[in-house]
Amino acid sequence: FQLEKCDLCQLAVPRGEMANHEFNLCERRPVKCHICDENYVLTEKVNHFNIASETCCKKYQDTCPHACDYHLQMSRKDYLKHTNTCSNFEIACRYESIGCQERIVRADLSNHLNHHRSEHEVMLLTSH
Predict the structure, then answer these.
(1) Any idea what the Cα angle at residue 55 is, between residues 49 and 57, rounded to 5°?
(2) Alpha-carbon distance 9 to 101, whole Å?
(3) pTM for the model
(4) Structure confidence by residue, pLDDT tens digits, 96-128
(5) How far apart are the C-alpha atoms of 48 and 51, rounded to whole Å?
(6) Cα Rg of the chain, angstroms
(7) For residue 6, what are the contacts with CB-CB under 8 A and spacing of at least 6?
(8) CB-based contacts of 96: which residues, under 8 Å, 6+ apart?
(9) Which of 19, 85, 95, 99 has the highest count of CB atoms within 10 angstroms of its CB?
(10) 1 pLDDT higher than 80
(11) Is the dihedral of CA 75, 103, 120, 124 positive or negative?
C-alpha cells in the first residue's frame, strides 16, 4: 500500500484511508462550532470553549474560571472586563517595575504588600 501525507496534520496515511482520516480522524480537521457556527481546528477545542482563551468562541458563555464569588454566565468580552475586579484573578505586584516578580491573587495583594514591605522598600531605594 502507498502512503500519502495528510495536508492538515502531515501524518502518513494509507492512500485508501485518506478521506476517512481527513473527515473523521485527523486531529487538525476543521470542526463546526455548535454555538457560533464557525470552524475551529479540533486540537483547539479546549481553547474554543474556554473564556480565558484568546481564541474563545465569540458566543460561548461560562462562569469565571477562577472560582470567585461571581457565578453568573459571561462571554469572553465580559470575562475580560471581569478580570479587572475578580478577587481570584492573578495579578502582578504593583512593584513589578522595580523588581518584584511575584504574581498574586488579587484578594491576597494586601497580605503580599504587608509581608514583603521591607523587600519592596529595598527595591525602591536601589531602583533610583
Answers:
(1) 45
(2) 39
(3) 0.74
(4) 999 999 999 999 999 999 999 999 999 999 987
(5) 8
(6) 23
(7) 12, 13, 18, 21, 22, 26, 28
(8) none
(9) 95
(10) no
(11) negative
